[in-house]
C-alpha cells in the first residue's frame, strides 16, 4: 500500500513538474528551428559585433527579481543601464512571474532602488491569471486564492470574480480545518469556479488542504498557477521556496496538475506580448536570471536572449542548459548594456 502510494505520488510529481515547465505548443520542428545549439557568448562592450548587435535591438524585456534588484539590495549599474536604454530610444518592458506585487508595487520598488519605471511598462503573472479567468467568462464567480492580497486585487479588478482566502487564511491551523471543513466546506466546492495559486509568504497546511479539497471535490474547478518558479533568491547563496513549490504541494494533495501555468515560459504569453506591444522578436531581447523561465520564454518565440549572473543561477548552469533554454549571451549584470550603447 505504501509502495503504491509512493509510486503514484512520484508519478504525479513528475507530471506536475512537466506541467509547470510546459509552454504552449509551437510544434517540435518549429521549436528546433528557433533553438539552435550555437555557443553562448559573453557580451563584451569592446567587441564590434556586440556593439552592432545592440544597434539592431529595438526592445528589451526584463525579468525583475535578480535582474534589476534582489531581495538583499540593488544591483550595481542596473538603474543607469535602464536609463541609458530609454535615452537611446529602446523600448523597455518588465515581465515578472512574481504575483505578490502589483504594477504600482513594482514602481515603488524601483524607486527604492534608484530606478525608474511606469505601470504601463509592467506585466505580472497575476495580471495574466486574471486575464485567463476573464477569458473563461467567470465574472461573479467565487475563486479560492493561495497567495498575497495583491493577487486577489488583480483578480477582482481585472476579471470581476469574487476572490477569497489568501492572507485571510494565514495563521490558521489544523484545529481550524476541523471546524471549517466539517461537516461541509464554506463555500461549498461546487460553488468554487477556480483555485488560483501564487507565491504565498504565509503558506500553511490549512491553505494546502482547503485548495486541495476544492480541486478534488469539484472536477470542473479550474487549477490556475501564476508561475512555475521553484525558488527565489533571498540573498547571496540563500533561496526561499517560490510559487512552483507551493503549486507542486497542492497538486500532490489534490491528485491533479494545474490546468494552466500563466507566467514565463508560456509561449502564448510571449506571442501576446509581442503582438500587444508591436515588437519584432528578431529585434527584441529577453533578459533574465533563469534559463527555465526567462531564457526559454524568449527563445520559444525567436527573441534574442541575455542571461545575467546577478540572480539565482550560475554561468555554468546557463552554458549547460538544453538548447531551448540556452541563452545567446551571458553578462555579469544588465550594467553591461549601458556600455554597449
TrEMBL record:
Keywords noted in UniProt: Hydrolase, Magnesium, Metal-binding
GO cellular component, one term: cytoplasm
Organism of derivation: Polarella glacialis (Dinoflagellate)
Cofactor binding summary note: Divalent metal ions. Mg(2+) is the most effective.
Cofactor needs: Mg(2+)
Residues given in the record as substrate binding sites: 264
Active site: 63, 65
Binding site residues for Mg(2+): 63, 65, 289
Keyword Nucleotide-binding attached: no
GO molecular function: metal ion binding; phosphatase activity
InterPro entries in UniProt: HAD-like_sf, HAD-SF_hydro_IIA, HAD_sf, PGP_euk
Protein name: Phosphoglycolate phosphatase
Cited Pfam families: Hydrolase_6 (PF13344), Hydrolase_like (PF13242)
Taxonomic lineage from the root: Eukaryota, Sar, Alveolata, Dinophyceae, Suessiales
